[in-house]
Write a structure and sequence with these properties.
The chain has a single domain, classed as MetI-like (MetI-like fold). Helices cover 77% and strands 0% of the residues. The protein has 15 helices and no strands.
């Protein structure tokens, strides 16, 4: 197990290098001059040139990227062009809000997705099954930004029950968490149903029923446990994606998370902030996937033997 974890961590290095190179290239090709954004449109050319030299923007592309990698290895991701603060301080200040929103959204998603998926599988082709699959299909197909706007119009504008944005009170968390949770619940529901249908047709399930085991015990103790592997995979990927910054949701609700920080940085061509955010979120996503893989070993002992 330890060798497997070390191998996965080592594989993270080329992934982060590739991601950072891709983002660095895109940011270099986008129009706009960071020095102009910092000093303003009416700044003299001499001042602009001096600032570009100070920021290293006058150097070739490859030299700039290698300097970024060299500093990043030492833990220095630079200073934000717009705020003048260390980039990682900006990210760590925003990440708790993203984590809070992601956990709340995932609790809603799991609370809806797994029970509905189990009921749909045990009552296949029933009216309840067909209705839940239709709702799941709508949830998967519905754009997050449109759903967020509709919830704001309904609960914030029309009924004035909840705030439309910000992160001032606990009520501010409800609408963005619902937006994230319902769309993610649709994916979990479909996967839970599919996995449960595959398991409940196995011989050991029929044997358990033939022995007189209660149906609730058959479903919860025998079928669900053996159907958890693909469900956990989906939950892990979705949670990693949410931690990666629910960009659209945070933008719609003015949620002060990493996703919104990254959007603002892209608009202002704040390359250090964008690069550090992407590298940080890619690392978080990879660690979440590693944790999911480790959980497999505790759910299914056969998988644990493969790590040895």
């Amino acid at each position: 197990m330890y060798k497997y974890i070390i191998r996965r961590l080592l594989l993270l290095v080329p992934v982060l290098l590739g991601v950072s190179l891709l983002v660095f290239t895109i940011m270099s090709l986008t129009p706009g001059d960071p020095a102009q954004l910092i000093l303003g449109e009416n700044a003299p050319k001499e001042a602009l040139m001096q600032l570009r030299i100070k920021m290293g923007l006058d150097r070739p592309f490859l030299v700039q990227y290698l300097n970024f990698v060299k500093n990043a290895v030492q833990g220095d991701f630079g200073v934000s062009y717009t705020t003048g603060r260390l980039v990682f301080k900006e990210i760590f200040a925003r990440f708790p809000a993203t984590l809070e929103l992601s956990i709340a959204g995932m609790i809603i998603a799991i609370g809806i997705g797994i029970p509905v998926g189990i009921i749909s599988a045990t009552r296949q082709y029933s009216l309840l099954d067909n209705g839940s699959m239709i709702l799941a299909l709508i949830g998967v197909s519905m754009p997050v930004f449109w759903q967020g706007l509709m919830l704001i119009l309904l609960f914030a504008v029309k009924f004035m029950l909840l705030p439309s944005g910000g992160n001032e009170t606990l009520k501010s968390l409800i609408l963005p968490a619902l937006t994230l949770g319902t769309s993610t619940a649709a994916i979990i529901t479909r996967m839970t149903r599919s996995s449960m249908l595959e398991v409940i047709r196995q011989d050991y399930i029929r044997t358990a029923r033939a022995k007189g085991v209660r149906e609730n015990a058959v479903i919860n103790k025998h079928a669900l446990i053996n159907a958890l592997i693909p469900i956990i995979t989906v939950i892990g990927l979705q949670f990693g994606g949410l931690l990666g910054g629910a960009v659209l949701t945070e933008s719609v609700y003015s949620w002060p998370g990493v996703g919104r920080l990254m959007v603002d940085a892209i608009r202002q061509k704040d390359t250090p902030t964008v690069l550090a955010s992407v590298v940080f979120l890619a690392s978080v996503f990879s660690f979440v996937n590693l944790i999911v893989d480790i959980l497999y070993a505790y759910i299914d002992p056969r998988i644990k033997s493969q790590y040895r």
